[in-house]
């Protein structure tokens, strides 16, 4: 990344938004605003559909002998995040919440999307000061090259009305821990308590409750958390959970004056309870937005990690080192001296959304799982250019819906924060053959869809430094955000190592100067004198990140569509569609180039959706098509299940 920071204090000079016809604007409103309504019509709240929203402990309880009449109580969902390489802000402070201008709207409707979930984020080390040093030496202050306009920080808001768990699972962890906590520790964790699904619990009890029922596998590390997958061959795949294990900072007064190396390392990798609460409040709003991650539960643990988690950590670390990587940043959980009995942990439980796009692209770049005979036309999961098309537009649509629903900005939409799930697929040629057959079937039914042919499902995760309007306990809107003006290191990464590090600087310049390639030094006085801060809504940042996502998707793509069409109707029709998609992606690639910023007129994800509808790249039906298809699949499974029961009873 490059230098400096850009904030502002004067109205920005903006290019006019893309002019559209009234009919097109109406189509966009219909496409975006009716997605939530469409979901509510899909039967996702029917008897077995909510299974994927349930905490893993609820799944355990279902396997025990209980009265058949026992019902699960419904409740409002919240969400938590994966702490990414750029989430250093979390250790320095929490999301600031401030009243949103002219906001007295009611809370957005909380809806469930069974396929969305969180998974492992990108793990990249970012230069950071020691958290321990900041906490133990009051005289130590952070200096930056330039003093930026500060955002008025609201005092810590009292916790919002706590989300209700889907099921009371407090009796499932034997036994609940009810210690006489020191007053300073009790006050320290108090902000978390209203959001918990279970009471404060020993880590060992949590581990022994899960291990007989689930395989516990560590799948990744983020800057401030470890990520585990819970799976079981005896349970439906919808019960798979991802656990984000976040070590919590202890109360300041309890930090020893001379910590060991392991203790100091752990302090640097820990998060404050307030940071976790802020993320829960932010992400509970986004849970209702299609394409965003789904929350299941928040747990609070104490003590050393349980044996099942120790084994998972050591197995992951062994594989990492065998593959020539650095290994875990966290101290070995199996060594007693590394973690004390008073260590506190927040565990955020979510569903499994598949593999993050970064790992997926790396895997396909290496050609893993493919034979030497398969040519390099992989795209995403072997679907070629059609996979790229589906993934990109699902990201755009999710971002656009987030903008409309709660004025959301990601500010960190790298490929590690996008998850992709597939219904099936194999090698490149097999996948394309399957798509050709599927497309021909649609054609015979008189339907030619422009999106969703691959069946890939995309979820945006990790909102550590995101901005959004949330609703507080009084029903008033306020803005949850991280003041990036306080974290110079976010904008200092080396772009020659990874293009992503340049993007942070580009989004900052786009937000405050409406020019991602602007010379910040030369225009510093203009920025310093403007009235804009990171609290404000800058949807331009989403456009900069969408440029990056498309860049990464196309980075290793072979552009020319296969021209080996034969007389086969299915194959020829599919090749024709591939060629159409490639032509559009070429236009998009040029349109989103940052050097074309002034001419493009695209200043938000919503603008990009508007253009897609105007240019007929997408239809309104395509925007809702994926949701309708999920509904059809759900109804089909239910019909098959009923038919099977009838057949069994007759026999």
Automatic annotation (TrEMBL):
Biased composition (Pro residues): 173-182
Domain Serine/threonine-protein kinase haspin C-terminal: from-to ranges: 488-610
Biased composition (Basic and acidic residues): 44-54
Catalytic activity: L-seryl-[protein] + ATP = O-phospho-L-seryl-[protein] + ADP + H(+); L-threonyl-[protein] + ATP = O-phospho-L-threonyl-[protein] + ADP + H(+)
GO molecular function, one term: ATP binding
Keywords annotated in UniProt: ATP-binding, Kinase, Nucleotide-binding, Serine/threonine-protein kinase, Transferase
SMART domains in alphabetical order: DUF3635
Compositional bias segments (type: Basic residues): 640-651
Region annotation (Disordered) ranges: 44-185, 632-651
Enzyme Commission number: 2.7.11.1
GO biological process: intracellular signal transduction; mitotic cell cycle
One GO CC term, this protein: nucleus
PANTHER family: INTERLEUKIN-1 RECEPTOR-ASSOCIATED KINASE, SERINE_THREONINE-PROTEIN KINASE HASPIN
Protein name: non-specific serine/threonine protein kinase
Species assigned in the record: Sphaceloma murrayae
């Amino acid at each position: 990344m490059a230098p400096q920071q850009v904030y502002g204090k004067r109205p920005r000079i903006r290019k006019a938004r893309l002019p559209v016809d009234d009919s097109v604007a109406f189509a966009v409103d219909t496409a975006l605003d009716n997605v939530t309504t469409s979901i509510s019509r899909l039967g996702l709240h029917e008897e077995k559909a909510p299974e994927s929203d349930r905490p893993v402990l609820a799944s355990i309880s279902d396997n025990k002998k209980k009265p058949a009449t026992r019902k699960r109580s419904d409740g409002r969902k919240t969400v938590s995040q994966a702490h990414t390489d750029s989430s250093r802000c979390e250790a320095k402070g929490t999301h600031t919440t401030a009243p949103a201008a002219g906001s007295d709207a009611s809370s957005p409707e909380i809806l469930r999307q069974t396929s969305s979930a969180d998974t492992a984020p990108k793990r990249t080390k970012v230069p950071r000061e020691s958290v321990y040093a900041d906490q133990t030496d009051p005289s130590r202050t952070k200096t930056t090259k330039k003093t930026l306009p500060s955002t008025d920080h609201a005092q810590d808001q009292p916790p919002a009305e706590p989300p209700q768990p889907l099921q009371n699972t407090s009796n499932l962890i034997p036994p609940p821990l009810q210690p006489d906590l020191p007053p300073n520790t009790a006050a320290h964790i108090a902000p978390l308590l209203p959001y918990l699904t279970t009471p404060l619990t020993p880590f060992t009890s949590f581990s022994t409750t899960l291990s007989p029922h689930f395989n516990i596998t560590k799948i990744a590390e983020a800057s401030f958390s470890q990520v585990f997958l819970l799976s079981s061959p005896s349970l439906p795949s919808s019960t798979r959970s991802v656990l984000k294990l976040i070590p919590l900072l202890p109360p300041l007064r309890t930090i020893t004056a001379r910590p060991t190396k392991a203790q100091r390392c752990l302090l640097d990798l820990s998060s404050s309870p307030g940071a976790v609460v802020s993320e829960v409040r932010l992400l509970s709003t986004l849970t209702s937005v299609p394409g965003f991650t789904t929350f299941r539960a928040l747990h609070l643990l104490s003590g050393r990690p349980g044996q099942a988690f120790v084994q998972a950590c050591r197995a992951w670390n062994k594989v990492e080192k065998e593959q020539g990587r650095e290994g875990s940043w966290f101290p070995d959980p199996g060594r007693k001296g590394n973690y004390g009995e008073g260590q506190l942990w927040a565990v955020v439980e979510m569903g499994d959304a598949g593999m993050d796009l970064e790992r997926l692209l790396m895997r396909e770049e290496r050609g893993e799982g493919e034979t030497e005979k398969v040519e390099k036309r992989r795209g995403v999961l072997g679907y070629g250019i059609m996979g790229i098309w589906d993934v990109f537009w699902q990201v755009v649509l999710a971002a656009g819906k987030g903008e409309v629903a709660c004025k959301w900005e990601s500010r960190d939409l790298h490929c590690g924060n996008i998850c992709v799930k597939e219904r099936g697929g194999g090698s490149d040629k097999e996948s394309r053959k399957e798509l050709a057959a599927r497309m021909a079937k649609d054609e015979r039914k008189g339907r030619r869809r422009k999106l969703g042919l691959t069946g890939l499902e995309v979820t945006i995760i990790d909102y550590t430094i995101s901005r959004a309007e949330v609703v507080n306990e009084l029903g008033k809107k306020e803005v949850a955000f991280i003041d990036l003006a306080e974290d110079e290191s976010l904008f200092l990464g080396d772009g020659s190592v990874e293009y992503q590090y340049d993007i942070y600087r580009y989004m900052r310049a786009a937000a405050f100067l409406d020019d991602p390639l602007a010379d910040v030094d030369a225009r510093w006085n203009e920025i310093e004198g403007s009235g804009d801060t990171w609290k404000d809504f800058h949807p331009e940042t989403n456009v900069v990140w969408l440029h990056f996502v498309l860049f990464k998707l196309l980075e290793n793509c072979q552009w020319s569509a296969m021209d080996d069409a034969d007389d086969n109707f299915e194959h020829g029709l599919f090749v024709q569609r591939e060629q159409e998609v490639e032509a559009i992606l070429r236009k998009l690639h040029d349109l989103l180039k940052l050097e074309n910023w002034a001419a493009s007129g695209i200043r938000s994800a919503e603008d990009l959706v508007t253009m897609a509808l105007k240019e007929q790249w997408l239809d309104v039906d395509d925007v809702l098509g994926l949701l309708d298809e999920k509904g059809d699949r759900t109804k089909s499974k239910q019909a098959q299940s009923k038919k099977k029961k009838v057949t069994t009873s007759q026999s």
